[in-house]
Amino acid sequence: MHYLIYIPNVKGVGDKVLEAAGLSALKDSGAEFSEHYEGTPDGSHGTLVSWSPYSEEKLNPPKKVNAENWVWRPCPKTPNVEEGQFWLGTNKYLPPLPLDLLRRGEQELDGYEVQLGDGQAWRIVPASAVFREYRAEGKELKWKPEERNEQYTRNASIIAREIFAKLDLLDCPNVAKADIASYSDQPVTFILSGSFDHCCLALSVKYRLTPEICDMLNLVNRKEIQAEIVKASIDLPDIFETREQKKTNDSSTKNTTSESPVVIHVG
User: Fold this and answer.
1) 109 in a domain, yes or no?
2) What integer pLDDT is reported at residue 228 of this predicted model?
3) In a shared domain, residues 132 and 34
4) Rg (Cα) of the chain, in Å, rounded?
5) 117 domain residue, yes or no
6) What is the value of pTM for the model shown?
7) Is 259 exposed, middle or buried (0-12, 13-18, 19+ CB in 10 A)?
8) 181 DSSP 8-state letter
9) N or C: which end of the chain has fewer CB atoms below 10 A?
């Protein structure tokens, strides 16, 4: 089951409705809009936005916004939106599932599985995997992220450079295949700020989510979850799996541990 978005005091359909609510990040094919004049969460009139899940099961949004099985919460005030600028509706008995929140066209993107605050397994696409082929007219082929993912790739690059520098991996032409078997098993600790927003950007690559919606669904509010998402965003699980495989091949004793010796404290 997907969620529903109610936008107070706004009429119309299309991307302009989402933009008016500070939800430009949710612009996607498949959105359906309907105007409501009564039975709304705030008692006003407004527009209801719904999406049919990727599973193709029809959502069938309620005719009355405050239908019995739906719970409505106003968005909190953030740098992006005012309090109550939109309302999030979720079904009491059918919470949103990762499959239902997939962005159209991004379902094939793979990533690292991380269990989030709702107890479900979500896929975190590393920044290295969001680049697309791009060729400006008359110029050579280049790779660049889609516009909506640019901030994610910039953040991940900054985090990766800080961590890889301390791990002496920046000089490796291919980090994931680097010979890092001799690296110490002693944990290396990093303190990162702004990790909540970075985690929300990581999730928004594959799923129809914003920081406000992540907060209201309680997906990444725990710091240990944020740490795992940060690691996945820069491919650390793959890097240290390669490291352990190399150590195992070079040792007569089999080592089945693939834990990353990196401890991330988030803020």
Assistant:
1) no
2) 93
3) no
4) 21
5) no
6) 0.79
7) exposed
8) T
9) C
